[in-house]
Amino acid sequence: MTGTADIQGILDRRLSELVESGIEIGAQVCVYKDGKQIADCSAGLADRDTGRRVDGDTLFNVFSVSKAVAATAVHIQADRGLIEYDAPIARYWPEFGANGKEKATIRHALTHRSGVPQMPEGVTPEQMCDWDWMTGQIAAARPIAEPGTKALYQAMTFGWLVGEVVRRTDPKGRPFNQFIREEIALPLGAPDLWFGVPDSELGRVAPMYDYRPTSDPATRPALSLAAMPPQVDLVPAVFERPDVRAAVVAAVGGVFSARSEARFWAMLAGGGQLDGVRLLSEPLARSLNTPRPHSEEPDVVMYGIPLPLSIGGYWLGADRPAVWAVGSPTSICHPGAGGSLGWADQENDVAVAICHNRLVQGLPKEEDGTYLIGSAINQALGLAAY
Q1: Which residues is 32 bridged to in the sheet?
Q2: What does the pLDDT average to over 130-143?
Q3: Residue range 74-96: average pLDDT?
Q4: Alpha helices of the chain — where are they, by DSSP H?
Q5: How much is the pTM?
Q6: Catalytic residue set
Q7: With helix as H, strand as E and coil as C, how does 109-134 read?
Q8: Cα(377)–Cα(371) distance, integer angstroms
């Protein structure tokens, strides 16, 4: 095991190597151990056109890593007695109980079993930016499967499903992004967890490069296309639009820095608290890595692959491309399209955030920058690695 004082140097070298080899273009990594930051590294170019380099203040699209923060907002409300996990969503959002969704529960939404993975038919980027329009369409939708009976990954709808419940149970009635800011980001000293980037911060956002789809849209399963329609898919052409940057697309629209994101994961690694700020009760926080029931069930939205998900709405570490950097099957984590990743290892009180702007995934380990960063961290700390 390497001393924690050495990890900064190890990661500085690893990031430099990855940028020099072309595996990464620009990247940030931040690591916490026992509630203390032990590494805060950046390397490469944030913007190839201007030559702007990545620093600790650069912001990156993190796509589905956003879901972890959105799910945590639900847990805050549950901890406060404002939400019951096994209650119907319609108890808090009555319009949602239409067209066969009356039995869909909060837990179904968290574990991707609500039966509503599909985006509204024909949705445009402009409509996706309209929170009220999106929640109205989801409330009126018919479930693809009876709620609770099938794993159907809510790639994009997750954010509106959980976000509208949080909004409706918030005594202050705040917009979801305001709730995140006031109840999670600012209390944690993590100001760069943005759901909707204000104009004042746009100059810090890194453009995205080298997007490679994992498959041709013509070969994608029908439910995958329904859940992530091409016209609003997780691609730079959509998520670099000014209106999408400014919108609250809570499942996939987060724009974070590794510094702020790592503080979020450090709170979870520390049993719900960081630096004396408690967001979740310890028993609840330590239950969040419980695997969801039927975890082995193939998910047809995700090409028939079983997803290693927990009851809390997070992923679990596993020896598979999206999360093999995590190194521990008991860690809660969340990957994002293109290779972003963050995790909380509660057993060892370790938290990691990895942000970058080269959107590649499905690569072998020796070409996967996220894996190579994660393996360096785990080896330095003497932890297991896949």
Answers
A1: 37, 351
A2: 98
A3: 98
A4: 7-21, 66-79, 89-92, 106-110, 125-128, 131-140, 157-169, 176-180, 222-227, 236-239, 242-246, 258-269, 282-287, 369-380
A5: 0.97
A6: 64
A7: HHCCCCCCCCCCCCCCHHHHCCHHHH
A8: 10
